Amino acid sequence: MNIKIKGSRRERSEFLWGWLFLLPTMAGLIILNIIPIIQTVYQSFFKTGAFGRGNVFVGLQNYEKLFTDSLVWQALMNTFKYALVEVPFSIVIALLLAVLMDGKIRGKSAWRTIYFLPMVAAPAAVAMVWRWLYNSEFGLFNHLLNSLGLSSVNWISNPSTAYISVAVVGIWSIIGYNMVLFIAGLKEIPRDYYEASQIDGAGGVKQFFYITLPLISPTMFFVAVTRIIGAMQVFDSIYMMMDKSNPALVKTQSLVYLFYRYSFVEGNKGYGSSIVLLLLVVILLITVIQMVCQKKWVNYS
Amino acid sequence: MKRKWGFTAAAIAIAATALVGCSSQQAGKETTTAGKEETKQAEETTKAAENAGGGKTLTVAIWDKNQEPGLTEIMSDFTKATGIKTQIQITPWEQYWTMLEAGATGGSLPDVFWMHSNEISKYAQYDMLLDLTDKIKDSKTLEMDKFPKEIVDIYKWEGKKQLAVPKDIDTIALWYNKTMFDEAGISYPDATWTWDTFADAAKKLTKSDGSQYGFTVKPTNDQAGWCNIVYDMGGYVISDDKKSSGFGQEGTIKGLTFLTDLMKKGYAPPYEVVAENADEALFEAGKVAMITQGSWMLPELCNNDYVKANCDIAVLPKDAASGKRISIYNGLGWAASANTSMPEEAWKLIEYMGSKEAQQKQSDLGVVISAYEGTTDNWVKAYPAFNLKAYLDMKEDIVIRPYSKSTMVWTNMIHDKLIDAWNGNKTTEEVCKDIEKEMNSMLASE
Amino acid sequence: MDKSRKIRESLIYVILFTGSVTMLVPFIWMILTAFKSTSESTQMNPFIIFPGVWRKDAFISVLSKMNFLRLYWNTLVLILGRVVCAVLTATMAGYAFGRLHFKGRNLAFSLVLFQMMVPTQIFIIPQYLMVSRLGALNTWFGLLFPGLVTAFGTFLLRQAYMGLPASLEEAARLDGCNIGQTFLHVMAPLTKSSMVALGIFTALFAFKDLMWPLVVNTEQNTMPLSAALAKLQGQFVANYPELMAASLLACIPMVVIYLLFQKQFIDGIATSGGKL
User: Fold this and answer.
1) Hey, which residues does B215 pair with through a beta bridge?
2) Contact C230 A177 (CB under 8 A)
3) Which end of chain C, N or C, is less surrounded by CB atoms within 10 Å?
4) Which residue of C lies nearest to B64 if distances are taken between CA atoms?
5) Where does the pLDDT of residue C276 fall: very low under 50, low under 70, confident under 90, or very high at 90 and above?
6) Is some CB atom of chain C closer than 8 A to the CB atom of A265?
7) Mean pLDDT calculated for residue range B420-443
8) B413 contact C CB<8A
9) What 8-state DSSP symbol labels residue B330?
10) Can you identify the CATH homologous superfamily of domain A68-297?
11) Neighbour tally for C186: CB within 10 Å
């Protein structure tokens, strides 16, 4: 009897303290995120007037437009293409670097510092310097090509390859971040696994595929999920690197870029809302698929 | 409004203090002081925000960094005369309208700012601008009939409310690289030039190795670029009643085809190069021999070392058949926010900027060609090394920059669609017809 | 055996070296261009790699046009404000999620998980309208607004609390501490490394945030570096030395801080991610 009262008092106290602690975060999440989502959904049924006034209810018109707007579908394709280049390469290169640095290497922290450096640079600065490097007339890259006797490349204005150039900037920026996560993941692999396999006569490559890869798969899963979500939201580099008159823009602009343009440049926030909701659905779908598939390859030992 | 969130911050801070306060005494004390500090900080932020938004300083928003030094000088005269301080904020064109729209939505427009024919109707429609009509009537220094009527009309909403006072007038002229002309053995452009002479020169000035081209013009360079030749050849962009597009007109197609044909022949850099670099950037780098540019570009071009050493200005070529040498012109206006906290001060600044004295100084300093009649003579002396007179000569036959209520929307559409004509993916005629159709439907829904 | 190992080792160094040169090229080019004159930067014949004279012109001109002290200060306020808010709220919520059992906890936590998956752009328009209705456009509060709480941080701290042994809590309870005291004196101090990690993570992404400051803070007085740089590009179409000088000035503070606190940075990032 006595214990039961104590238990319920403890329960009550946990309930009160729990919600007290949650209060700021929950209030914030509701105000900053939940209400905005509801508003975005609501707004997507309106044709928005200038300065947030004169909104007209248009029903599903924005969605009808969305499904027939070739720019939107092109932007979705562009976003996928960007992610398909950026995510795998940034993971593979980062993993390779992490494995190389996992052994006995001189100047480990110096290497790590260099590879992580792009992460701490202002993204606008990064985009500007890459745009300058890529410049078809005055850029360093084309000069190097020319001096090797090769002809110039329109890095960011060739519609069929510009997304790759933008993705390269993404890869360059994120490698260090992924690498640090992989290095941390590798540290958790018990050394005796390697020693045991060495006795069994397994070489470096075999060790990598039979020990390292399976044991680092949880980290890889984390990186893959977060990177795909990140890549699907690419905006900064496209916004900074490509002018409105760039012929490759239509074949490169991402959904978020289109959302920014419609919502804030052309003042059509209702249509912008429907675009960003499309992005939400796509990201949720991909994440769910990843969660389902993880059982096939992620190894939680 | 601003005070409100100061309270909110204070309330949050107090709530936070109370939250942690129920734990042990010592920790409670620590957090209380922290809470107080937060409140204090919040108050300071509020104050800083108030200082930035109000006080005794007028915020003035403009988009052209080239004009800042000159305008600062004129406004310091204004401050001396009236005691009203001003602070200029520059936001580049691309983001300027996003900034203004954000300000209008949130009720925090700058006090005084530039207006443009592209955007005036939107701001007028929602009563975002201070109505200056009565104030102008009562003013002793401001004489509206000294300004070009068409520019005054742009800012006269529905023919009644004057919402902005003309600031300047801009015309277009031809920039050419003397060194390249000398090298190719061609005489410099002058008033006898027709567009055919231009085409001929462009051909001779183009080097086959791709190191030098005759000219360049971006699809986005409408007013200072392709629009002029379109009007020369009898075409137009929008009809006088602003109801229909002129892209189906023979002259329009002819003018644009003339330009795109020259591009196809390789007398202009490939479109990819044009897209990545501004017209003037290619000119400044000695990549192209000729560009057409507006008078607002003078500070940029005239202060560039390479341009100073090699280049000069001439009037635009004329059309051989029609004999027309048209310059598209436009004029910005000074407008004030309808809900500025200092309407009197804002009006005084606008009145001053429209006075003969300030307009004269604006021309004298070479900032831009002032809109006020008879103030422009000294403007040509602003950059003595260049033949600025060409810009004034271009004032003889001018057409106002095409505009309607939704200029921005159809201008963006035209810029987008012209890319296909520029890089040759579609025929120019095809693109024009397409633009005509889309623009007409946009105009119909205005 | 020894020989092949040596070859393998030197191969590793070659790869690492080539890789780091590639990583550094943009930075080097930024520095070289910033010290050139405009015409040097666009000269093709001959192409100029090193500036003839190391000019400070671009820096002088950029510093006269932009108030960098102000921009640094705004950025610092943005970063510190977001870090303090994130660490405070996430520590409390993380403890509740990780250690306490109460009604509604799972529902609340699913809200946190949901937020982590939603693209942040979805919140921008409504958040922007809220800020503008509060009259807080172009204020620091407006700048901080979306970072007042953090779903990711909450998740991170929850993981940290879940990893702590239950015996500590029991001991504190036997000493007569209530839940608040237990949290403050016993549990919270043990998650210091996660708090630091969250702080660094938040700081880094606050520094890199572009779209929010771009729409909310359009005045120079309260604008952070990222947005000011984006604006700069529109102003100096062709002046690459100035653009690069400004980029360099924008990057230097964070790079210096990073070089000074490398270990904390790397450890922080490593802690902030890993497994879901």
Assistant:
1) B290
2) no
3) N
4) C235
5) very low
6) no
7) 94
8) no
9) B
10) MetI-like (1.10.3720.10)
11) 17
